[in-house]
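pls design
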């Protein structure tokens, strides 16, 4: 696994943190220096020089850190805008898929309902001992099957355009099943 590179922001923040810690360390050392001897005064002078240098680095570090924070904020905003744009595309596609799935569900329910009506009519005709009663329903069944076939084809085409392979396949299978039912109906 590759090693992650350290960001500019992290470098700046680490350097700033180190400078602040050094500033605190120098302040603590300076607070313990005794001024009653010449060596203490020399040490204090040296520590104050280091403290001033470190203080200057902290001051410029604040500016650099603020600049890096602004840069990071800008990058985060760009990323958020990209995701927001993709979210709109995602939601649009999801709505499209849901609409096609709802159409498929309604088509399946309609096909099932028609199949049950045909089976009931056939059963009633057989129970009545003739084909006269079912012939009364054939024009209605034929019209409803044709409508369902057209919807299945339209749905298959919509699924193909939307690149929904599984739904396209299912609509094609339903279309074939409806064609077979239509052929059986014609032979009654």
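designed seq:
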């Amino acid at each position: 696994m590759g090693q992650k590179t350290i960001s500019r922001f992290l470098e700046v923040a680490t350097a700033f943190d180190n400078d602040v810690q050094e500033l605190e360390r120098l302040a603590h050392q300076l607070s313990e220096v005794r001024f009653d001897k010449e060596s203490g005064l020399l040490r204090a002078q040296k520590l104050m020089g280091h403290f001033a240098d470190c203080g200057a680095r902290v001051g410029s570090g604040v500016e650099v850190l603020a600049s890096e924070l602004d840069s990071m904020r800008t990058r985060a905003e760009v990323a958020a805008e990209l995701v927001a744009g993709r979210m709109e595309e995602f939601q649009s596609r999801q709505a499209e898929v849901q609409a096609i799935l709802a159409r498929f569900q309604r088509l399946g329910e309609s096909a099932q309902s028609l199949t049950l009506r045909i089976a009931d009519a056939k059963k009633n005709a057989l129970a009545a001992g003739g084909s006269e009663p079912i012939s009364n329903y054939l024009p209605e069944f034929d019209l409803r099957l044709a409508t369902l076939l057209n919807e299945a084809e339209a749905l298959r085409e919509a699924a193909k355009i939307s690149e929904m392979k599984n739904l396209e396949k299912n609509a094609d299978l339903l279309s074939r099943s409806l064609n077979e039912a239509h052929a059986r109906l014609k032979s009654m």
